[in-house]
Inverse folding.
């Protein structure tokens, strides 16, 4: 079996990876504790994997999908160890995993791919089935890294030879199997010698920009500064930002993009200031079965994520909050969608459909 991390080491020039599979044990870097602590958690079951996804130990659509694939591997092992019928056991595990985060399409895609892999080999001995599904999960991880590297090459060509690139949330190595989607584009440009500076929106309420994007770019010695979310428009107006690159959690058939809350605002500001707005996402994030962004279920999380910071209440007692986790950026605001198969441009409906023909 190919070790996905070896691909990163050989071709990615990046030190950051959010997961490990060692001696048939799965580990996740606890992203809730970054940048203060680097703590690895061993995940031993599909239920633990679903909880890690729900509690944001791991986040980012591709990383969630890969983690869920390994959750399915662990479900097979649990069924074998307990003497249960494998198919019924892993079907239940699949539902638990898919319910963990409803917006990111990679989660459903990875789980269903693992179910199909089982069905293909269900006549085999249980130990053989386990080995085959382990190989399938590793393939999903490997393919994600290869897609990120390809996206990086396509996307770097769209960025200026020098300038400041704004990104929102974290669409980097920590949100994927390694290297990253939006940050993969930035990494590729930087490694190609383009004089790129990065400006990371802090991204409330979980500060994925200031905590995670800044953390991993600093680790790879890529120049980065942080700005508050509400500064983006002014900085574009001042000519400080030359392009925006973000990731995606789901892309509808018409090109509408679901991504971290605040992405829509950045896209509108980019349009108003004539700044190109790029989305980088693998084909597994494209959802041809969802006609448009209004059809995407938007997850809403606890009010406390907004009303408290580091355990301290930031609003008067009794005041609540709205906490939608994602928003929808309409296709007409997007300059191009960068995938591992190339750059998609409007009209997106036909461009996306061509990816599946």
């Amino acid at each position: 079996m190919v070790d996905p991390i070896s691909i990163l080491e050989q071709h990615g020039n990046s030190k950051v990876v959010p997961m490990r599979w060692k001696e048939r044990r799965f580990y996740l870097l606890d992203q809730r504790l970054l940048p203060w602590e680097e703590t690895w958690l061993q995940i031993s079951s599909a239920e633990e994997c679903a909880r890690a996804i729900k509690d944001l130990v791991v986040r980012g659509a591709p990383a969630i999908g890969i983690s869920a694939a390994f959750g399915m591997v662990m479900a097979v092992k649990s069924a074998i160890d307990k003497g249960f019928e494998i198919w019924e056991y892993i079907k239940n595990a699949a539902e638990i995993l898919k319910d963990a985060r409803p917006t990111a399409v990679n989660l459903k895609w990875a789980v269903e791919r693992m179910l199909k892999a089982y069905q293909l080999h269900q006549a085999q001995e249980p130990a053989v089935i386990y080995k085959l599904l382990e190989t399938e999960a590793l393939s999903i991880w490997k393919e994600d890294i290869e897609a990120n590297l390809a996206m990086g090459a396509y996307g770097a060509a769209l960025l200026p030879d020098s300038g400041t690139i704004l990104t929102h949330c974290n669409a980097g190595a920590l949100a994927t199997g390694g290297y990253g989607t939006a940050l993969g584009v930035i990494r590729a440009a930087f490694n190609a010698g383009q004089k790129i500076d990065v400006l990371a929106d802090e991204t409330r309420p979980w500060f994925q920009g200031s905590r995670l994007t800044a953390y991993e770019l600093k680790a790879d010695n890529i120049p980065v500064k942080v700005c508050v979310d509400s500064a983006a428009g002014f900085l574009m107006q001042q000519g400080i930002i030359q392009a925006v690159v973000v990731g995606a959690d789901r892309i509808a058939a018409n090109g509408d993009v679901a991504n971290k809350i605040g992405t829509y605002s950045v896209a509108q500001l980019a349009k108003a200031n004539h700044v190109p707005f790029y989305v980088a996402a693998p084909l597994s994030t494209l959802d041809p079965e969802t006609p448009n962004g209004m059809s995407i279920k938007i997850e809403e999380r606890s009010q406390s994520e907004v009303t408290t910071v580091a355990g301290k209440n930031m609003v008067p007692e009794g005041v609540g909050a709205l906490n939608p986790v994602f928003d929808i950026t309409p296709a007409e605001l997007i300059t191009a969608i960068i995938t591992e198969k190339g750059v998609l441009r409007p009209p997106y409906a036909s461009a996306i459909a061509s990816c599946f023909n």
